[in-house]
Amino acid sequence: MEGISGSCLCLYVPSQNTYGTIYIPKSYEVAKTMLEDILFFIVAFISEIIGAIAGFGSSTIFLPLALFFVDFKTALILVAISHLFGNLGRINFFRHGLDIKIIITFGIPSILLSFVGASIVGILSQDILKVILGIFLIVISILFLLRPVLKFPTNTGTVITGGSVSGLITGLLGTGGALRATFLTGFNLEKAKYIATAAAIALATDATRIPSYLSQGFLLEQYYYYIPILLATAIGGSFIGRKIVDKIDQQVFRKIVLVSIILVSINFIVDGVKS
């Protein structure tokens, strides 16, 4: 209809055995988009807090929740950018605790395989990626529920394998922090050194996969303005998480978060299989 700006919705009217048209004003669509954006940033902020408290990284929380707002490939690049900002902050704060030997033996394979994983994302369908992500998150969550203090041996072969596998999964699925942590905890590093070393490896992995995502067109122009807001949510969420981490029973909190991840992941698998 001339002079009406917006979109239309066709509905069946049983009493008249016909279809009617409802016009949705453009202002409603704009308001709906703004609300979804605000909710997305709130989720990013809360995910950073939860990740800091639970100890297995924000992307494990943020990525499955981001998929309720955007498609898989957009979620992948936005979560990676947010994750990069969070790691920059952690490295700056604990920069004197880096373990160079671990960064080389674990980090280099992780970086190389992250690039490989990021390069093949574009050739896989989003439904397949959702199913793979769902299965991975369920397996890793059950593993942490059954073995909260799981550690791997620290021999050279295991370290290189761990770096390779976690890097590949990070590049392909966008969330390998929990797996990376299980390998790094085996070194029994002091807290500051562990945080700095893990953040440095994660940062290098992010810096490798993000250009690959960008070259494949994962970040559309409409999401450019998300970047500075994600910077703020990453820094703010990480700061608050560090402040309240000692005030919460971490074991109980981790279990609640892991069960929630399992439930969300089941939904991804069902959606992927149905499609």
Quick structural overview:
The chain has ten helices and two strands, in the order ββαααααααααα.
Strand content: 5-15%
Q: How many distinct folded domains?
A: 1
Largest pleated sheet: 2 strands, antiparallel
Taking all residues together, what is the mean pLDDT?
82
What is the element string, with H for helices and E for strands?
Answer: EEHHHHHHHHHH
Poorly predicted spans: none
Count the E strands: 2
Helix count from the secondary structure assignment = 10
Distance between the termini: 35 Å
In angstroms, what is the radius of gyration? 21 Å
Shape: globular
Secondary structure: helix percent: over 70%
What does this 3D model show about the protein?
With 275 residues, this protein is mainly alpha-helical. The protein has one domain. Helix content is 71%, strand content 6%. It is built from ten helices and two strands. The chain has helices spanning 26-54, 59-66, 72-93, 100-120, 126-146, 156-173, 177-184, 191-215, 226-244, 250-274, and strands at 6-13, 18-25. The chain has a two-stranded antiparallel sheet. Helix 2 runs antiparallel to helix 3 and helix 4 (100-120) runs parallel beside helix 6.
Topology:
Blueprint: E1 6-13, E2 18-25, H1 26-54, H2 59-66, H3 72-93, H4 100-120, H5 126-146, H6 156-173, H7 177-184, H8 191-215, H9 226-244, H10 250-274
Antiparallel strand pairs: 1-2
Question: Which features would summarize this protein structure in a list?
Answer:
10 helices, 275 residues, mainly alpha, two-stranded antiparallel ribbon
